[in-house]
Design a protein that fits this description.
Distance between the termini: 11 Å
Helix content: 25-40%
Shape: globular
Number of strands: 13
Number of helices: 10
Order of helices and strands: EHEEEHEHEHEHEHHEEHEHEEH
Bound molecules: adenosine-2'-5'-diphosphate
Structural class: alpha/beta
Length: about 350
């Protein structure tokens, strides 16, 4: 950190869907940035990104990027391969890395953090702090206060995930497919081998031998780690839907103690990072299209599930580029500064 208190910052993956969002979150939250550098692949040489009324040139990420320039904090969002290679380099050069990829999340020595849930874990970092999978991050924000108040026995989650979770090219393809459909033309297929427009994909991730997708495994493992409940029973089905932004999650859970709807509402309405939108008969329930670009995780449709003892259902929506990725990463960086770490 400079004597003025300004933080020198690098964003790796600056041209991607999450990288772009990071700049907008940093700007909106008046992050105390001094020197800021943007990095992406050689493909982006010559491009710029907008930040705080200026345009930053996008530099190619090269092996010596963190030796040529000194950074306090590096926000990485360029995929697991890049993180595995570059995060240790940035740490050796003296930076703290907040990494958005899956590379380090399940490493027992690396904290996996949603600040509203387990901010104290940041203190035990050894240079890298992992930013969770977007679906897990959004899920944990309302689960934490429910877990604290009533205890968790079992969770069943079905997701309705936006295409921006798959990157900037996926967003462009859904738009192109939608336009082509409206014009009566053949739909382009560069990202998906099938139509994403007007469709629902129950598989949009690598599938393991046992039929579980990579995304489902991440959500299950990471939720246990973030909540600090290694034995939590959790079952997840991840689905891609033709929505641009905001993941929605149908959450069914069994609590240890009886959780009356009014009590759950009370617990969630005071919880950090949660906003209650729960009056379905008056049209108040979380809808991804309207909530895109906002910071809270929204909870609604809270109702008892009489099919099991202490059963409860709710509907959760969060902007996965913000709370699920960029906002969460910037919040971690803010905590690092606040705690002098
Ligand atoms: P680029 O635009 O130059 O390919 P998304 O997930 O939205 O597709 O974004 C991925 C981000 O990761 C982009 O900024 C992309 O840059 C960046 N990236 C991909 N490969 C590399 C690489 N080899 N070196 C640096 N950045 C990379």
């Amino acid at each position: 950190m400079s004597p003025s208190g300004a933080v020198s910052l690098a964003v790796v993956g600056a041209t991607g869907a999450v990288g772009q969002e990071m700049f907008s979150v940093l700007e909106q939250r008046r992050f105390p940035a001094g020197k800021v550098r943007a990095f992406a692949s050689a493909r982006s040489t010559g491009r710029t990104v907008a930040f705080n009324g200026t345009t930053l040139p996008v530099g190619e990420l090269k092996a010596d990027a963190f030796e040529r320039d000194r950074f306090d904090i590096v926000l990485m969002s360029a995929g697991a391969k890049i993180s595995r290679e570059y995060a240790p380099r940035a740490v050796s050069a003296g930076a703290v890395v907040v990494d958005n990829s899956s590379a380090w999340r399940m490493d027992p020595g690396v904290p996996l953090v949603v600040p509203e849930v387990n901010a104290p874990d940041i203190r035990r970092h050894k240079g890298i702090i992992a930013n969770p999978n977007c679906t897990a991050a959004i899920l944990c924000v309302p689960l934490k206060p429910i877990s604290d108040a009533f205890g968790l026995e079992r969770i069943v989650v079905s997701t309705y995930q936006a295409v921006s979770g798959k990157g900037a090219r996926a967003v462009a393809e859904l738009e192109a497919q939608t336009r082509a459909w409206a014009a009566g033309q053949a739909l382009p297929h560069n990202v998906w081998p099938y139509d994403m427009a007007f469709n629902v994909l129950a598989v949009d991730w690598k599938v393991a031998e046992d039929g579980t997708t990579e995304e489902e495994a991440k959500v299950m493992e990471e939720t246990r780690k973030i909540l600090g409940l290694p034995n939590l029973r959790i079952s997840v089905t991840c689905v891609r839907v033709p929505v641009f932004r905001c993941h929605s999650e149908s959450v069914n859970l069994q609590t240890r103690r009886k959780a009356a709807v009014a009590e759950v509402r009370r617990v969630l309405s005071g919880a950090p990072g949660v906003e209650l939108l729960d009056d379905p008969r008056a049209g108040r329930f979380p809808r991804p299209k309207e909530l895109a670009g906002s910071d809270p995780v929204y909870a609604g449709r809270i109702r008892e599930d009489g099919s099991v003892e202490n059963g409860l259902s709710l509907w959760v929506v969060g902007d996965q580029l913000r709370k699920g990725a960029a906002l969460n990463a910037v919040q971690i960086a803010e905590r690092l500064i606040q705690d002098g770490l």
